[in-house]
Amino acid sequence: MTTKTHRSPASEFRLLTMPLVVFLLVFLGFPAIVNLVYSVSSVSFETLRSPEITGFSNFVAVWNDSAFWQASWFSFRFGLLTALLECGLGLFLAIFLAPLIERRSWLMAILMLPLMVAPALVGLMYRLVLHEFAGPVPYYLWT
User: Fold this and answer.
1) Which of 11, 26, 40, 47 is the most buried (most CB within 10 A)?
2) Cα(18)–Cα(11) distance, rounded to whole angstroms?
């Protein structure tokens, strides 16, 4: 006589999401920690593996730099303007294309093609990150 053990949905969910959680911790957590260390260090290409901790002097230098504030103000204006233009253009296209898509549903597939660019670029990025000779992950794992 065989008996089956039933797992609760919560434990099954934890079991199935564990690989994703580990993946995210490794590939997002590690770079975040390295960036935090580099932000309070004096680092160059020669000292990437052994940065010299300098405290918050980098932040003080940026805070007192007028070029940083000019660039921040430009980035803010550029981002606001492009967001408004993109929202307006998107609303216009949605209203304009709605009747066309109702009659020709195959147009939706063509209009969705640009949405495939971001996942393809993320895949390419991880391919480069994990590259045997040029990627940072193998470099840190093998040395």
Assistant:
1) 40
2) 11
pLDDT tier for residue 22 given thresholds of 50, 70 and 90: very high
The pair of structure tokens assigned to 42 is 């004096």
CA 139, CA 136: separation in Å to the nearest integer?
5
Phi/psi for 55 (5° steps) reads 85, -145
Torsion of CA 141, 30, 40, 74, to 10 degrees: 120
Predicted TM-score (pTM) of this structure: 0.54
What are the E-state strand segments in 30-107?
Answer: 41-42, 52-53
Considering just the CA atoms, what is the radius of gyration of the chain in Å? Answer: 24
Give the C-alpha separation, 98 to 90, whole Å.
12
Start-to-end CA distance of the chain, whole Å, equals 54
Q: Output the six-digit token pair for 103.
A: 């009659």
Q: How far apart are CA 65 and CA 76, in angstroms?
A: 17
User: Binning pLDDT at 50, 70 and 90, where does residue 17 land?
Assistant: very high
* CB 105, CB 97: distance < 8 Å: no
